[in-house]
């Protein structure tokens, strides 16, 4: 091309790129109200956002993957943990973590009940923003290793269905092919909403928001034989299923798992999972002897 043709090409290309950019910008702004659920921004949500900023939560946590990386990303925290757990945690974080055991400490911000409710409302709004799948998964900050393996909990969580057999607790049955009910249950363990592995570890002695599931089958037998058990299960499988669909029937010892006789575990799995899926999840969890 000669100089005139080159100049014309550059001008036309720049004009086209500018038009495309402006069109995409306008289209993005057109979608923002729907993507961000703007109609659900209530005064309480706004108050929660103010609490988030006033307490400098972003100095340790991230939202949508943006912020500090010292503590977990909280984009989906209300879906992963639920309001009862978050309320108890924000009232007294020291019940859940301590500096000596976990090498970090969530400071007690001395939040009022109103501030906690507003902050949870803000988290609910954030969790329902269409963030196009970002961040791709919750950010784990624990560095605890799984006994007997070279995997960290974060690596275990990212290993995917059927790839964590080496990290299974002692006595757990290896997972078979994709059509194996146990394999399907293992996949559900990671993909149910909320995902079970967001709160439960399968490593012995590693308790997260919920108790470890290592040795679950053995503990189920002991629990059913104890005088404290008031449920109706008569087998390991029935006990595990009862624990999933009615988690407050038997409360695991320790005040970090329940409050006021109600388990922090969501009680929505009976509605979100089919009977077949529950059977698959129970079959998987029953392998943890």
Automatic annotation (TrEMBL):
Listed transmembrane segments: none
Pfam families recorded: Cytochrom_C (PF00034)
GO molecular function, one term: electron transfer activity
Residue ranges occupied by any Cytochrome c domain in the UniProt entry: 43-127, 180-289
Superkingdom per UniProt: Bacteria
Keyword Lipid metabolism: no
Keywords annotated in UniProt: Electron transport, Heme, Iron, Metal-binding, Transport
Coiled coil: none
Record's keyword annotation contains Repeat: no
Database matches in InterPro entries: Cyt_c-like_dom (IPR009056), Cyt_c-like_dom_sf (IPR036909), Cytochrome_c550/c551-like (IPR051811)
Cited PANTHER family: CYTOCHROME C-553-LIKE
Name of this chain's protein: Cytochrome C
């Amino acid at each position: 091309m000669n100089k005139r043709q080159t100049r014309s090409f550059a001008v036309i290309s720049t004009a086209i790129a500018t038009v495309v950019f402006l069109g995409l910008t306008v289209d993005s702004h057109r979608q923002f109200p729907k993507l961000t659920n703007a109609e659900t921004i209530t005064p309480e949500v706004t108050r929660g956002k103010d609490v988030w900023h006033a307490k400098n939560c972003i100095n340790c946590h991230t939202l949508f993957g943006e912020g500090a990386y010292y503590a977990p990303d909280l984009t989906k925290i209300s879906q992963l943990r639920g309001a009862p757990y978050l309320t108890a945690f924000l009232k007294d974080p020291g019940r859940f973590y301590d500096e000596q055991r976990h090498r970090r400490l969530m400071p007690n911000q001395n939040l009022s009940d109103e501030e906690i409710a507003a902050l949870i409302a803000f988290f609910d709004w954030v969790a329902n923003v269409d963030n196009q799948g970002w961040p791709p998964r919750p950010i784990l900050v624990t560095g605890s290793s799984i006994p007997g393996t070279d995997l960290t909990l974060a690596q275990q969580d990212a290993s995917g269905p059927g790839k964590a057999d080496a990290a299974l607790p002692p006595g757990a049955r290896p997972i078979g092919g994709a059509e194996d009910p146990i394999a399907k249950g293992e996949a559900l363990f990671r993909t149910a909403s909320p995902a079970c592995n967001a709160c439960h570890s399968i490593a012995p002695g590693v308790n997260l928001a919920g108790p470890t599931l290592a040795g679950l089958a053995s503990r189920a037998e002991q629990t059913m034989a104890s005088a404290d058990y008031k449920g109706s299960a008569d087998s390991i499988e029935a006990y595990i299923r009862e624990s999933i669909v009615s988690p407050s029937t038997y409360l695991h010892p320790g005040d970090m798992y329940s409050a006021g006789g109600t388990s922090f575990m969501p009680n929505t799995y009976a509605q979100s999972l089919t009977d077949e899926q529950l059977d698959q999840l129970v079959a998987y969890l029953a392998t943890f002897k």
